């Protein structure tokens, strides 16, 4: 998925020129729809092709979303007759609003999953004696066990997610206006396809050696480390291992709630605290989150409320860092039209490369026997 996302990200600007940014967003939603449908029958033949498709289709999603937010910010400044110096603050503000709404969907989605999972009973005796935490891996002998939900419950959850995705796609198709294209972008439609793809791909790769962007790459990748561990490792090795899979949704809903609230408050306080102080606070909490996950070993006696502390910390840091970093990316190259699409593309490529590397490292801990069990 992430390998194809790298390719899809490089092709994102060309797809936007040949079609539109709205089409990029709709294509990203369509990829998620197909991925949910494939999980109703999770086999190698269904998941692998759909994973490639979702990687390719969502490659331009982040780029087009970022450009929509930039255009909204420019329109706001023009209508309010604000000076151009306010552009960074305005972009950060609208990124904060977007991120707040985006994380709010994590609240509803994860609450729905926990409510559905708790509609059945589980054998809690399997948790007795479980030693959980970062040392838990599928390759370890005596891996902890937890009762799995039935296929009917999982299919009910997928059906709810599918309905939500269809509603989201319909909202984009019917409610999101098209962005006006420049004369240069309109003329690019008449160019040969290979010329558009070649030019935009070369432009994207050239941004990688731009000094200011290179300075941001460690921050982009570091921001995703705790969140990636949280989504992949914490939910299984901490929450599911200690108190059961039915509590995973609640823990992620807490993350979404704290992140949404933090994004709004941090945006307002930025005018008093400054951006550097907020970046420092966010990165410090990120580091503390990783340290806690490395040292903490919960067990079956751990209270579920205590397991919510780490998601709360991650939500606080993400609520600060994601809106501020997106705003910083938007003005990094002074919003020159030739660079905007390529800049967002390279952010997406950087994140995809990190996720690809993390997935490869994580797979090294899986034994062949465990991989076969996971497939079944």
Automatic annotation (TrEMBL):
Pfam families for the chain: UNC-93
Family: Belongs to the unc-93 family.
Primary location recorded for the protein, binned into one broad class: membrane
Transmembrane segments annotated in the record for this chain: 40-64, 85-104, 153-179, 213-235, 247-269
GO annotations of cellular component type: membrane
Localisation: Membrane
KW Transmembrane (keyword) present: yes
Membrane topology classification: Multi-pass membrane protein
Name of the protein in question: Unc-93-like protein A
Keywords: Membrane, Transmembrane, Transmembrane helix
């Amino acid at each position: 998925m992430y390998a194809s996302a790298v390719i899809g990200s490089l092709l994102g600007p060309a797809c936007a020129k040949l079609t539109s940014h709205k089409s990029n967003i709709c294509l990203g939603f369509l990829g998620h729809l197909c991925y949910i449908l494939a999980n109703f029958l999770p086999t190698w033949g269904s998941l692998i092709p759909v994973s490639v498709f979702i990687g390719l289709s969502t490659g331009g999603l982040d780029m087009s979303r970022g450009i929509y937010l930039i255009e909204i910010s420019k329109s706001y400044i023009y209508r309010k007759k604000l000076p151009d110096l306010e552009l960074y603050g305005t972009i950060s503000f609208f990124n904060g609003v977007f991120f707040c709404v985006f994380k709010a969907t994590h609240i509803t989605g994860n609450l729905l999953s926990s409510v559905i999972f708790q509609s059945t009973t589980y054998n809690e005796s399997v948790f007795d004696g479980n030693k959980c935490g970062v040392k838990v891996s599928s390759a370890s002998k005596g891996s902890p066990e937890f009762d799995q939900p039935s296929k009917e419950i999982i299919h009910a959850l997928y059906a709810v997610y599918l309905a939500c995705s269809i509603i989201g796609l319909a909202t984009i198709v019917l409610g999101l206006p098209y962005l006006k294209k420049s004369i240069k972008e309109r003329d690019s439609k008449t160019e040969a396809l290979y010329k558009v793809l070649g030019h935009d791909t070369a432009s994207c790769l050239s941004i990688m050696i731009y000094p200011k962007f290179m300075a941001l790459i460690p921050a982009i990748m570091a921001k995703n480390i705790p969140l990636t561990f949280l989504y992949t490792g914490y939910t299984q090795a901490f929450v599911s291992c200690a108190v059961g899979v039915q509590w995973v949704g609640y823990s992620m809903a807490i993350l979404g709630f704290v992140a949404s609230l933090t994004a709004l408050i941090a945006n307002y306080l930025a005018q008093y605290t400054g951006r550097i102080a907020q970046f420092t606070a966010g990165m410090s909490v990120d580091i503390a989150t990783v340290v806690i996950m490395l040292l903490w070993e919960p067990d079956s006696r751990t209270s579920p409320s205590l397991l919510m502390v780490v998601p709360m910390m991650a939500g606080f840091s993400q609520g600060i860092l994601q809106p501020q970093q997106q705003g910083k990316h938007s003005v990094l190259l002074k919003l020159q039209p030739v660079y905007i699409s390529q800049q967002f593309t390279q952010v997406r490529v950087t994140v995809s490369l990190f996720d690809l590397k993390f997935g490869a490292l994580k797979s090294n801990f899986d034994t062949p026997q465990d991989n076969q069990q996971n497939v079944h």
